[in-house]
Structures are given as structure tokens and as C-alpha cells.
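Ticket #282: bound-state structure for pantoate.
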Amino acid sequence: MELVSLPSEMRRIAEDLRRRDGTIAFVPTMGFLHDGHLALMREGRQRASVLVVSIFVNPSQFGPNEDFERYPRALQKDLEKIERIPADYVFAPDTRAMLPADTETWVEVTGVTRGLCGAHRPGHFRGVTTIVAKLFNLVQPHIAIFGEKDFQQLRAIQKMVHDLNFAVEIIPHPIVREPDGLAMSSRNAYLSPKQRNEALALSQSLFAARELSAAGTRDPDAIVQAARRVLDRSADIKLEYLEAVDWETLAKPSAHRSMLLAVAARVGDTRLIDNIALHNPA
Ligand code: PAF
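RESOLUTION: The complex was predicted; output attached.
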């Protein structure tokens, strides 16, 4: 496994691999890897001859009062985990190499980033799509794997790839959960044992909604209310949003189409997100 830090070197390697007919799978991450990330890497490993993983804590997707400075970092441990997959290349560039101070170009997807997290984190998705576009240019992957926990991010990247004609196939990967249902996230490391227990209400609220939907209720308001009742039992959860949206477009939902129920909440100072697909069986 080779550690690459210079963008120019990553690009040279990718061009060389492509010339030699290698198929490149790519898993972009911000490090502090958990089993959810490793599942994405295993998927990539199976689907292509070369696996590239990036580790880059991207300042441009954090707001001024967000956790960029304290975001957990553990490069050495991450490399050991990736080695066990194994990946072929780990691209871990410097902040300034990826985002020089004179950067003037940004990639912004408008429609699907308007609601949900986009409404609460101004500039977040612009930072994500800009850095992912740059990573795609440097790594030149044939496929890239993204987790469905960041469902709005997944839709934004799919839209960017479509609109800007990137030659990469986006492979969504289902959310990886702890045995008790908590969606895996690097930010779970911030939670005290008590907060971690409180945080379970997020997935439990989504599971309650899924049960209702599976029993035949398709009214988005009734589904949101069922989830809300579970969240309301936890005094320590500060809800940011709980919304049912169209699974495809993330716009207003319709009872006749598949929906996504998405939640964002703070447990203490930690912001957590989760979601569940409520597919229309008809
Ligand atoms: O999902 C993440 O970890 C990040 O948003 C990503 C895709 C690596 C871009 O910085």
C-alpha cells in the first residue's frame, strides 16, 4: 500500500493506472475510520482492480462555528485499518495543497442541497462537491462508493456527476449500524456513554416510522409524527429537523412514491444525522 500526499503525484499514478487498463475504485473519507468506512472499501475492493482511499478533513465543508479544529484525526490507526482491506493507495494531501489560499472556483449543486442539512449548514455542500470534484480529477476513478448515511451528500454528488459529465459511476452503500441500531459515524466518538444511549432515539424513531409505513401508512405527516413521538421521549435530544422527502429528488414527498425520512439532532454538542428509506411497495 502506498501513501501519496502530493496531488500531482496522485494524478500521475491515476493516469498510469488508466493507461495500464486498471479499473479504479475510490472511497473518499475524512479519516477516523469506523466499520462503515471499511464496508465501503470492501465494496470497492471487490468491484475494481485498484482501490484508492483518500483521507482529507476538508475545511471548506465546515461552517465557522463547526467542529473542523476538533474533528477526530488518527492517521496512523487509519492506515493500519486500510492496510487490512487492503487498499492500493491512500491519498492524504495537505490542506493547502488541496485548497490553496488563492482558490476562486467552487462547485455548487443547487436543488437537492436546498433543504435538510443544506438549510442548516450554509456552504456545507458547496465545500463537499468542490472537494469531491477535485478528488475525482486527481484519482480519476471508474467507480466511487458513498455511504447512504449522508444521503443528501450522495444525491448532491450524483447530481454533480450527471450535470458535469464526470466519467465515474457512483455506487451507494447502505448505512452500517451498530448492533443496537446507532448509525456509525466518526462523530459518535464525541458522545459520553449516557449521550450515546440517548442518541439511540434517532434510529429508533426511524424504525418506528418504517414499521408504520410497512403496515400500510403512506401519509408523510403521519409517518413524521410517529417518529417524532419516539424522539420526544428523550429530553436531551435537540431536534434540528425531522422530515419526510421524496427519496429520489429530496423535494416534497408524495404517498405514491418512495420516501426518505431524515433526521438531524444534537445530543449535547454533537450533531448527528440518520435516515431511512420508505420504499413504496406498489
Ligand atoms: O462523507 C465524507 O466523509 C466527506 O463529506 C467527503 C465525501 C469525504 C468529502 O469531504
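RESOLUTION NOTES: The pocket of pantoate is lined by residues 28-30, 58, 61, 128, 131-132, 150, 153 (CB under 6 Å).
TICKET STATUS: resolved
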